[in-house]
């Protein structure tokens, strides 16, 4: 096959490209330039799309003896990921930019261009596996649960899976990938993993949002609507947050309070007891299936609401207006804007963006 290897500059994508070459494929490497800030340099292990990363990707491609290009996707990244991130926060939701990047950039914009240029598939260093069945390809968890990245790939469709290649999915551990990189002479063998939001390299999300959307003082309310404090901008708060609330009125029971809801229209934040973070139902209109759609409109599954959270057994219902999931035990601290990924065993069935949550604890409890 003609393979376009997406090379971020990290060890995973470098080894994935190396394995594609070793498997006999015709491989071309590409690094995506997602920022037009020409002086951007990597800060510690933050970020994944800097000048240093592009140079590391080029060195890996040279070592593998494959053609290498840098493609400027900065405008598309700004429109589909950064602007979406800002607008979601302005709407009081908690977005996942990595999901949007996979959905809109790596497996939409990149794959579209790859197919236009005659490539058969895009290769990445994600830890996930593809299984061929009589119903088509299925997306499954990686063999290494600690590194499993199937959650952030839950947005992929059947058509995208048909042109995707994950060489690392069966690797038992990240340590083995690093050892393999060292054996191959790749300079990124011990490079730290990237983390946090790549377009906020210093990790100060609150400060970055304040600069982008401004800050306006508002009220902090309890679940009964009583004012218990003030804030400098609702966008700076996320559901489940405990620190930095600066409440002027203590809780009657003296226990800490947590952010339960962010209301951007009124610029208010609602706080309450930790128990009120327990969510008994979630639903969302925007959904997709990673392969064949479920046969029945109601089915048992596992639901996962964060990249590294534990899956929870649940009952899902699919209707014209979206997907509703009722977990067997309440979910903790779910916020609208998060992505719920549905699994059946190790298989990724699909995903939806959470629009609505229902607390498992009544207001007067």
TrEMBL record:
Residues with site note (Interaction with tRNA): 126, 338
Q: Pfam families this protein is in? A: tRNA_Me_trans (PF03054), tRNA_Me_trans_C (PF20258), tRNA_Me_trans_M (PF20259)
The GO annotation for biological process reads: tRNA wobble position uridine thiolation
Q: Which reaction equation describes what this protein catalyses?
A: S-sulfanyl-L-cysteinyl-[protein] + uridine(34) in tRNA + AH2 + ATP = 2-thiouridine(34) in tRNA + L-cysteinyl-[protein] + A + AMP + diphosphate + H(+)
**InterPro entries from the entry?**
MnmA-like (IPR004506), MnmA-like_C (IPR046885), MnmA-like_central (IPR046884), MnmA-like_central_sf (IPR023382), Rossmann-like_a/b/a_fold (IPR014729)
Q: Where is the tRNA-specific 2-thiouridylase MnmA-like C-terminal domain?
A: 285-350
Major site of localization recorded for this protein: cytoplasm
- EC main class here is transferase
Task: Tell me its EC number(s), please.
Answer: 2.8.1.13
What's a single GO MF annotation on this record? tRNA-uridine 2-sulfurtransferase activity
Residue numbers spanned by region Interaction with tRNA: 147-149
Cellular compartments annotated: Cytoplasm
Active site residues of this protein = 101, 198
User: Where, in this chain's numbering, is ATP bound?
Assistant: 6-13, 32, 125
Instruction: Please report the stretch or stretches of sequence annotated as the tRNA-specific 2-thiouridylase MnmA-like central domain.
Output: 208-272
Residue pairs linked by disulfide bridges in the UniProt entry: 101-198
The keyword Protein transport appears for this protein: no
An annotated GO cellular component of this protein is: cytoplasm
| Coiled-coil annotated spans | none
Per the similarity annotation, which family is this?
A: Belongs to the MnmA/TRMU family.
What is the name attached to this protein's record?
tRNA-specific 2-thiouridylase MnmA
């Amino acid at each position: 096959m003609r393979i376009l290897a997406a090379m971020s500059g990290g060890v995973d994508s470098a080894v994935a490209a190396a394995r594609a070459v070793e498997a006999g494929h015709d491989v071309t490497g590409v690094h995506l330039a997602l920022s037009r800030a020409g002086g951007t340099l990597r800060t510690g292990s933050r970020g994944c799309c800097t000048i240093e990363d592009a140079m590391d990707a080029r060195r890996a491609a040279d070592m593998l003896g494959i053609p290498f290009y840098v493609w400027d996707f900065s405008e598309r990244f700004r429109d589909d990921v950064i602007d979406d991130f800002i607008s979601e926060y302005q709407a009081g939701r908690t977005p996942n930019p990595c999901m949007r990047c996979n959905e809109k950039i790596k497996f939409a914009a990149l794959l579209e261009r790859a197919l236009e240029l005659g490539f058969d598939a895009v290769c990445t260093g994600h830890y996930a596996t593809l299984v061929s069945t009589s119903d088509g390809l299925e997306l499954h968890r990686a063999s290494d649960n600690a590194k499993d990245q199937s959650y952030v790939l839950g947005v992929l469709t059947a058509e995208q899976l048909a042109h995707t290649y994950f060489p690392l999915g069966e690797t038992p551990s990240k340590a083995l990938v690093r050892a393999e990189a060292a054996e191959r002479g790749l300079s990124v063998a011990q490079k730290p993993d990237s983390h946090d939001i790549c377009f906020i390299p210093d990790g100060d999300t609150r400060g970055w949002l304040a600069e982008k959307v401004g800050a306006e003082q508002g009220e902090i309310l309890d679940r009964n609507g009583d004012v218990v404090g003030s804030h400098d901008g609702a966008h700076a708060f996320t559901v489940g947050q405990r620190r930095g609330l600066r409440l002027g009125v203590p809780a009657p029971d003296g226990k800490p309070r947590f952010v339960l809801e962010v209301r951007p229209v009124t610029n208010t934040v609602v706080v309450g007891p930790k128990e009120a973070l327990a969510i008994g139902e979630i639903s969302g209109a925007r959904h997709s299936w990673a392969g064949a759609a479920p046969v029945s409109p109601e089915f048992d599954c596992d639901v996962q609401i964060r990249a590294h959270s534990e899956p929870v057994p649940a009952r899902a219902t699919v209707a014209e207006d979206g997907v509703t999931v009722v977990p067997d035990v309440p979910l903790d601290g779910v916020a609208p804007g998060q992505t719920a990924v549905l699994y059946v065993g190790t298989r990724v069935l699909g995903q939806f963006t959470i629009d609505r949550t229902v607390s498992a604890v009544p207001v007067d409890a």
